[in-house]
């Protein structure tokens, strides 16, 4: 098999549904954010704070391209599909977009301003802006779109599996 990519906004459930899907498929699971943190030995919020977002995006690009060239389910960072090289790589692998409305994303992640891009200005307003800008990108890159609103992670993993079998 090749990689299978999960994309979507913060709170869409990429890190939650990814392992459930990988278990059903009997393939490895990797989370790009987690790999970056373990290789860097620091949290993403600290990479943003210490080095700035552009430096984070370079790290993210390199790790994402490496993992997409491997096998198994790969959960990307929420902003990764906006990097052109990553968008190009996504065109070569099955890509699943976990769609979430701003209201549900806020409910799921709480009012956690610890997430670097959601700091300041209020989580809800920032997420709405971010979703407006990113939704067309997610939609364009997705082979499969899964509506996650009001659905449990296990049911979503089953839905992705069914959609993959239908292709
Ligand atoms: N379908 C769901 N229904 C309810 N809660 C969910 C669902 N999916 C995920 N969650 C919860 O929402 C929170 C965010 O989920 P998760 O970390 O998987 O999102 P993510 O897409 O990986 O976000 P990020 O881009 O920030 O890494 C977690 O607390 C998780 O338990
Ligand atoms: O939405 C984003 O741009 C981000 C989402 C997270 O997955 C992390 O990759 C980082 O916090 C940036
Ligand atoms: Mg995640």
From TrEMBL:
The pathway where this protein functions is: Metabolic intermediate biosynthesis; chorismate biosynthesis; chorismate from D-erythrose 4-phosphate and phosphoenolpyruvate: step 5/7
Instruction: Please tell me where substrate binds in this chain.
Output: 33, 57, 78, 134
One MF term in the entry's GO annotations: ATP binding
Q: Which domain of life is it from?
A: Bacteria
Q: What is its EC number?
A: 2.7.1.71
Query: Which residues are recorded as binding Mg(2+)?
Result: 15
GO cellular component terms, alphabetically, are: cytosol
Subcellular localization is given as: Cytoplasm
The cross-references to Pfam families, in alphabetical order and at most eight, read:
SKI
Q: Record's InterPro entries?
A: P-loop_NTPase, Shikimate/glucono_kinase, Shikimate_kinase/TSH1
Q: Which UniProt keywords apply?
A: Amino-acid biosynthesis, Aromatic amino acid biosynthesis, ATP-binding, Cytoplasm, Kinase, Magnesium, Metal-binding, Nucleotide-binding, Transferase
Q: Which GO terms describe its biological process?
A: amino acid biosynthetic process; aromatic amino acid family biosynthetic process; chorismate biosynthetic process
Main localization is cytoplasm
How is the cofactor bound, in the record's words?
Answer: Binds 1 Mg(2+) ion per subunit.
Catalytic reactions of this protein: shikimate + ATP = 3-phosphoshikimate + ADP + H(+)
So which cofactors does this thing need?
A: Mg(2+)
Gene3D superfamilies given for it? P-loop containing nucleotide triphosphate hydrolases
Positions that bind ATP:
11-16, 115, 151
HAMAP family (alphabetical): Shikimate_kinase (MF_00109)
**PANTHER family referenced in this protein's UniProt entry, alphabetically:** SHIKIMATE KINASE (PTHR21087), SHIKIMATE KINASE 1, CHLOROPLASTIC (PTHR21087:SF16)
Give the protein family: Belongs to the shikimate kinase family.
Function, as annotated: Catalyzes the specific phosphorylation of the 3-hydroxyl group of shikimic acid using ATP as a cosubstrate.
Q: How does it assemble?
A: Monomer.
- What protein name is recorded for this chain? Shikimate kinase
Gene for this chain: aroK
